[in-house]
Specification:
The chain is an alpha/beta fold. It folds into four domains: about 5-130, Response regulator (Rossmann fold); about 140-310, 3-Layer(aba) Sandwich (Rossmann fold); about 315-390, Helicase, Ruva Protein, domain 3; about 405-445. It is built from 20 helices and 16 strands. The model has no long low-confidence stretch (mean pLDDT about 85). The structure holds adenosine-5'-triphosphate and magnesium ion.
């Protein structure tokens, strides 16, 4: 495909001769005679490279460079300076130009400058793709865990690798939903196409819509330039809608339409455009309950939920705790250049018995902190935070939400039984000794000797 070049030059002879030379080289060349119309063309056309004169009527070439750079595009800009005055050239480079050529223009010189600029641009794009591929390849390696449930989840992700089924990830906070969402994408046949994440709860509703769908210039006050929506950016790949449970009903209806028609319409545009996207979603909410209560559309729920991956909380896969802790220990020790080798037995017991309301993320943070404060080569009990020590207040807000009261009571008994007498345990739970006994019997928890 021919690379597209825009020439911004007010002097007609130069403009036309440049156009002729560059078209002859095989580039697709457009020309304008002012920076103002240049900016407009840049907005609309998809240029790989811009060549601009510095002295122009109206906005000058340096300002043009500055505005192009502000837009975070990857277009290269080459400026033409009237006399090889170093000052203007330096100003242009400082504003973000790739290079400059001096008048009178030597064709061979400008051709080679253009070639270099385009080569560098292609290299940058290639690096980006390569980096993404490498990240993708290692994604399964990034998932640590030996519990049955984690290994079978990984198997399931491998199984669905060939499909483009919309996938819903469920699980409490910090259980690895995003990690798995990436694994789903980077192990699918769409891995070379973008994975575009967006957190639905972090962005106000009206902004979220324009982020997702994009808009045309002037679609609303403040829309000074057109913007591609995330759905369009993810074309061919996947959009990861995190915290989907927080999406409002009006956007739910719009998302439903995207899934059904595979079409999106940017705000302010009349025509819609076809997109090919896989929708990966995640939530830590009880979405079935939300459907029952009418805050989440049932039809949408079925469409995003073709494949469900349920990530269990850490306390339900205790065998992963020490493995994960070891992984994070190595990671953070390497990062800060300490040689911490192990976690001692007491600390390991504390880690294993804790209920991890913040799941893997909480474990990760706690190990990072322990690595920071440890002087020796072993992590000890004292390097772990208060919350993990036995004296810590047990009921924590997150836990109460995550557990049913029954499960909570059971965990409580199991945890405190070794250190408290029966009466004390019953008092703490606010129940009688008799009912404590009944509960024990029902759950088959034998009384300690
Ligand atoms: N099995 C795992 N192996 C290695 N790292 C993990 C694992 N699970 C989670 N993590 C790490 O824990 C952190 C939290 O994971 P992630 O962001 O995927 O959780 P989440 O479920 O999306 O949480 P939230 O609901 O709060 O957004 C991340 O840094 C992630 O890399
Ligand atoms: Mg997340």
């Amino acid at each position: 495909m021919a690379e597209k070049i825009l020439i911004v030059e007010d002097e007609e002879t130069l403009r036309e001769s440049l156009k002729r030379v560059l078209s002859h080289e095989g580039y697709t060349v457009d020309t304008v005679n002012s920076a103002e119309s240049g900016l407009k063309s840049i907005e609309e056309g998809n240029y790989d490279l811009i060549i601009t004169d510095i002295i122009l009527p109206g906005i000058d070439g340096i300002e043009l460079v500055r505005r192009v750079r502000e837009k975070i595009t990857d277009q290269a800009v080459i400026v033409i300076t009237a006399y090889a005055s170093l000052e203007t050239a330096v100003g242009a480079l400082r504003a973000g130009a790739y290079d400059y050529v001096a008048k009178p223009i030597i064709h061979e010189e400008i051709k080679s400058t253009i070639r270099n600029a385009l080569k560098e641009k292609a290299l940058r794009a290639e690096n980006l793709i390569l980096k993404k591929q490498i990240e993708g390849r290692y994604d399964f390696e990034k998932i640590i865990g030996q519990s049955k449930v984690i290994t079978s989840l990984i198997d399931e992700v491998k199984k669905i690798a060939g499909s483009k089924s919309n996938t819903l990830l469920l699980g409490e906070t910090g259980t690895g939903k995003e990690l798995f969402a990436r694994a789903v994408h980077y192990n699918s046949s769409r891995r070379d196409k973008p994975f575009v994440p967006i957190n639905c709860s972090a962005i106000p509703d009206n902004l979220l819509e324009s982020e997702l769908f994009g808009y045309t210039k002037g679609a609303f006050t403040g829309a000074v330039s057109a913007k591609r929506g995330l759905f369009e950016e993810a074309d061919g790949g996947a959009v990861f809608l995190d915290e989907i449970g927080d999406l409002n009903l009006s956007l739910q209806a719009k998302l439903l339409r995207v899934i059904d028609d595979l079409e999106i319409r940017p705000l302010g545009r009349v025509q819609s455009r076809k997109v090919d996207i896989r929708i990966i979603t995640a939530t830590n909410r009880d979405i079935v309950k939300a459907v029952k209560e009418g805050t989440f559309r049932e039809d949408l729920y079925y469409r995003i939920n073709v494949v469900t991956l349920k990530l269990p909380p850490l306390r339900e896969r205790k065998e992963d705790i020490i493995v994960l802790a070891g992984h994070f220990l190595e990671k953070y020790s390497n990062e800060i250049g300490k040689h911490i080798k192990s976690i001692n037995a007491t600390a390991q017991t504390l880690l294993t018995n804790y209920l991890w309301p913040g799941n893997v993320r909480e474990l990760q943070n706690i190990i990072e902190r322990a690595v920071l404060i440890t002087d020796g080569d072993t992590i000890l009990q004292e390097h772990l935070p208060e919350t993990l020590q036995d004296t810590s207040p047990f009921p924590c807000e997150a836990l109460e939400k995550a557990f049913s009261i029954e499960e909570y009571t059971k965990e409580f008994i199991l945890r405190y039984e070794p250190s408290y007498g029966e009466q004390a345990l019953a008092d703490m739970l606010g129940i009688t000794r008799k009912s404590l006994w009944e509960k024990r019997k029902r759950w088959g928890i034998s009384k300690k000797k």
